[in-house]
Amino acid sequence: MKIIAINGSPRKNWNTHILLQKCLEGAKEKGAETELINLYDINFKGCTSCFACKLKGSNLRKCAMKDELEPILQKIVECDALILGSPIYFTSVSGEMKSFMERLFFPYTSYEGKPSNFGKKINTAFIYTMNVPGFALPLVGYKKLFKYNQKIMKRVFGKCETLVSTATYQFDDYNKYAMTYFDGQKRLKRRETVFVEDCAKALELGKRMC
Asked: Which domain CATH number covers 87?
């Protein structure tokens, strides 16, 4: 079984990246072959609305654009499970993740009444990390975003789980930044307790993907 994780964060080895790695660790425990792809290492753009994927008789199962994202999209066609991960920036996923989602979803979105053009059902998941505390999620509209993305993933691929990690630890030293609104020591304590629990949840999520 092949499982691919897509990291939509520019920061490697930090919150989103760590949770995705934990997912893949859980999948490996179940015998899966895994791969982690960092979007910020790839040179690509979002959908250009060329509609090549909607031409009659095209029979395309992925975006027609030719760039560094092309082989990644082909890997997703061939994979058995897919995990997306992104931090939340200004109430949405990162810019790279948004562009990736456009390129991933649109070719499989049917304008002819079919649920999906993907051609098979696979397990998927979406992991989000954010500075916002958990109690504020409904107040800032994040739950609506998560629900909408999950709906798209289900429609295209067949199944989707969501994992949310809130009030994350952003820096090694909060004293270096103009961030007096946040208590670095409290965030560090949360990283050593709650984030550890989130990592355990990600590990189990990876196992379920198998």
From this structure: 3.40.50.360
pLDDT at position 59:
66
Query: Long-range contact list for 65-68, CB < 8 A, 24+ apart?
Result: 65/103, 67/43, 68/42, 68/43, 68/44
Contact 86, 9 (CB under 8 A): yes
The strand pairing partners of 81, in sequence order, are 3, 123
Cα atoms found within 13 Å of the Cα of residue 68, Cβ hemisphere only: 9
Q: Give the residues of the chain that fall short of pLDDT 70.
A: 59-61
106-162, pLDDT tens digit by residue?
999 988 888 898 989 999 999 999 999 999 998 888 999 999 999 999 999 999 999
Q: Are strands 2-7 and 81-89 parallel, antiparallel or unpaired?
A: parallel
Q: pLDDT at position 60, please?
A: 67
Between CA 40 and CA 44 the distance in angstroms is 9
Distance from C-alpha of 126 to C-alpha of 26, rounded to nearest angstrom: 15
Structural domain boundaries, residue 86? 2-208
Q: What is the number of domains present in the chain?
A: 1
Burial (Cβ within 10 Å: 0-12, 13-18, ≥19) of residue 55: exposed
Q: Is 153 helix (H, G, I), strand (E, B) or coil?
A: helix
CB 124 within 8 A of CB 6: no
pLDDT confidence of residue 184: 86
Per DSSP, the residues of 59-77 read --SS----STTHHHHHHHH
